[in-house]
Amino acid sequence: MGETSWVDLFWTTVAALITLAIFSFLYKDNPAFKFVERLWVGITTGYWTMLLYHTSFTDKVVTPIFRQGQWWYIIPSILGILMWFRLSKKYGFLARYSLAFYIGISTGVFIPLTIKASILYQLHGSIRAIEPTWSGLMFVVAFLCMICSLSYFFFSKEHKGLLGVTSRIGIFTLMIGFGTGFGLTVMGRVALLGHRVSFLHDWVQQVVGTVF
Amino acid sequence: MPWYDRVLSIDRRWVYLILGLAVVVPVIVEMHIPVTLSREVQAVYDFVSEVRDGELMLLAIDYDPSTMAELHPMAEAIIRQVFEQNGHLLLSSLSQFGPAMTDELITRIAADYGKVHGEDFVFLGYKPYPAITILAMGSDFRVPFPNDYYGNIVDELPMMAGVHNFGDVRGVVALAGGTAADFWIIYGNAKFGVPVALGVTGVMASDYYPYLQAGQLFGLIPGIKGAAEYEQIADRPGEGVRGIPYQTTSHAVILCLIIVTNIAFFAKRAATRRHSQAISSL
Predict the structure, then answer these.
(1) Other CB atoms within 10 A of residue B258 CB
(2) Which residues, numbered 112 to 171 in chain A, qualify as contacts with chain B under a Cβ-Cβ cut-off of 8 Å?
(3) DSSP letter string over A49-61?
(4) Minimal Cα–Cα distance from A117 to chain B, Å?
(5) pLDDT tens, A38-94?
(6) Which of B9, B32, B48, B198 has the most crowded Cβ, counting Cβ within 10 A?
(7) Which candidate, B147, B166, B161, places its Cα nearest to that of B57?
(8) What is d(CA A132, CA A170) in angstroms, rounded to the nearest whole number?
């Protein structure tokens, strides 16, 4: 084994021990878990701060204003600085100018596009010609289930008769949806566990292969 | 104590242990469980198959290490497929913890295929605020990313000659572990009309099927099963396929636990009713 492999093994071992320390919480809270929990928070905070400094402050303030002479970047920079006045009781109102600017632009851009993507296109997708295929049949089933689910939330009339039947089907549809969501959530969480177990398995094999 | 009370008051650590064994055993003892293929994953594979001989696609690595278990296998399979077909790849990362991970991934795979940064692929890097970044990319990739991840000026990279915005890429495959998926649908597809497919975590998958059915997405890779499907279609087994056995055993264990505890719950309810009736009849 060369020197690099031993270095790799060292860092992999550190990662494996940290993983085991995190898992130890499943038994009960302990100092090892607390240590790695704080280590993680510290590292991520430091990493993110420096990333934002380089990708936002340097790229959008320092470089354009001081290196490229694009002085108009001073305007958003001043708006950014005004945000910090929120910490002052006396001058806190200045932060509202920046917030107003930010919220105004965000809502102006976000609302029309969200209506388009999440309402209009979705409506368009729900109203279409029915094809005489399996896919067409599934579309009809999905459409009827959607109507039944919506009828469950119609509270202006007592759920009896036809509305009672549709709302009952609607409940079953919703339960199928929640069940699917639960199953997919379990799949996601188990994938995280399996990934770490695979890592520990590979680590054990690496240790055995290197040391013995 | 009756059996149902014992079942319902079991220490949760026993459940962890049983579930842990259901995951550990299939990892140690190699098993093969076939995966059924779905149209939404096949659609993504078919799209990537067309990215060959200099064609360009955008792969958005919008996840962080907390979701890499599910999304990393998808990224690896797609990148390898594009490189095998001599396609070109533009990568971006809209998750703050994604860039280092993307760099490791692309550097490792590019070395396997002898691909060169700037000629065969370009990693643009990370910018905060996904919505604003996607909007700016729709105007010109150089607006949010004047420099790539490695500090090179994007204009000086050979692959980026003539490549300005979404109109110059065949489409976007966004592997997202958070809200970036919504931003690609709202800003990438609805605003600029670029074809978008998503690779998402299992937790998120059910939220995005309506977009698939409405045609706003041309494909969807849902969680680790989707990754395994993709690897199977591409005939390149990896972490996705490796994950299916422990997914199967753990789901079986969870189903058993749900059934057993429900039986215990109903048995307890029936016993309580019997007890109440016996008291009231006295």
Answers:
(1) 11
(2) 113-114, 116-118, 121-122, 124-126, 142
(3) HHHHIIIIIIIII
(4) 5
(5) 999 999 999 989 988 888 888 889 988 998 899 999 999 999 999 999 999 999 999
(6) B198
(7) B166
(8) 25
Whether A58 contacts chain B with CB within 8 A = no
Read off the pLDDT of residues A170-185 as tens digits, 9 standing for 90 and up: 999 999 999 988 888 8
Interface test with B, best of A30, A70, A131, A184 (most B CBs within 10 A): A184
CA distance B205 to chain A (A): 7
Q: Which of A190, A193, A204 to mutate to test the interface with B (most CBs of B within 10 A)?
A: A190
Instruction: Write the pLDDT tens digit of every residue in B170-218.
Output: 999 999 998 899 999 999 999 999 999 999 998 899 899 989 988 999 9
Closest approach of A90 to chain B, Cα-based (Å): 30
Q: Which of the two residues, A6 and B119, has the higher pLDDT score? A: B119
Residue A184 · residue B222 · CB < 8 Å: yes
A44 in contact with B at a CB cutoff of 8 Å? yes
Start-to-end CA span in chain B (Å) = 24
Return the number of other C-beta atoms located less than 10 Å from residue B49's C-beta.
14
Spatial contact of B63 and B178, defined as CB atoms under 8 Å apart: yes
Angle, nearest 10°, between helix axes B239-280 and B223-233?
A: 150
DSSP character at residue B117: B
Contact A51 B135 (CB under 8 A): no
Beta partners for residue A45, in sequence order: none
Tokens 């094809």 locate to A131
Q: How many CB atoms lie within 10 A of CB A89?
A: 7
Q: Which two tokens stand for residue B53?
A: 């001989």
Q: Which chain B residue's Cα is nearest to A127? A: B214
Q: Report the distance separating Cα A133 and Cα A63, nearest Å.
A: 59
Do the strands B219-222 and B196-200 form a parallel or antiparallel pair, or are they unpaired? parallel
What residue of B is the nearest CA neighbor of A114?
A: B186
Asked if pLDDT for residue A3 goes beyond 60, the answer is no
A43 to chain B: nearest residue by CA? Answer: B97
Q: How far is the alpha carbon of A34 from chain B, nearest alpha carbon, in Å? A: 19
Question: How buried is residue A133: exposed, middle or buried, by Cβ count under 10 Å (0-12/13-18/19+)?
Answer: exposed
**Which SS3 state, helix, strand or coil, does residue B122 take?**
strand
pLDDT digits 0-9 by tens, B56-99: 999 999 999 889 999 999 999 999 999 999 999 999 999 988 89
Q: Indicate the pTM of the whole model.
A: 0.86
What span, in angstroms and rounded, lies between the C-alpha atoms of B99 and B61?
Answer: 8
